Amino acid sequence: MSFLYLLLLPLEPLDWALRTARAAAGLVLALPFLVLAAARGGWRTPLLTLWDACAHVPLGQYAATFVVGLIAPYSASMGAVITKLEPGTAEVILPGRPWLRNPFASIHAVALTNLGELASGSAAVSAMEALSREGHKVRGIVSGLQTRFAKKARGTIRATSTVVVPSEDGKHILKAHAVLRDRDGAGDIVAEFTADWTVEVARKHKAT
What we know:
The protein is α+β, with helices and mostly antiparallel strands and 208 residues long. The protein is built from six helices and six strands, in the order αααααββαββββ. It has helices at 2-8, 11-39, 46-54, 60-71, 73-76, 109-133; strands at 81-86, 89-94, 136-149, 157-162, 170-181, 189-203. Strands 1-2-4-5-6-3 form a six-stranded antiparallel sheet. The longest helix is centred in the first third of the chain and has 29 residues, at 11-39.
């Protein structure tokens, strides 16, 4: 295993270069949509605005994921790709790259936790931004993480998450779950991730 890893190690920078090239091409194509959205005030909900703009173009998911990675570099380090994003819903895939493996020839537990955090975090933030678009003031922070591992993870892993943020004013404690499956989401559950979020919601009141 160690010898095989040494042989494949030079592929890691090539993989990074390919992902960066895809992201750059996607950003160039999405730029007009991003500029238009920003001019309309889309910067107030940056994640949904970014995804809405990039969803219009080829390679857009790589572009959106790259920008998210600039904001959260650690999440970008594993090379996952956000493939779906709607208010309160996210899907993220993680190819089983050799440099993500543990000594047991499966994907490392921390990489799976990182994948679950990215999926559930994207779902939670998009849900909060959707409330912001409706006129609410929303802010949230993660207060705890937990991952339960069901089996060894090999191949491409897909994490799916759905999060509902209450619209009622006040402080809410949420459980943001993500389910991780092998065979690109068509296989068995390999892990389940939960993030505890503390979210505060307040409706904006217009001056009369």
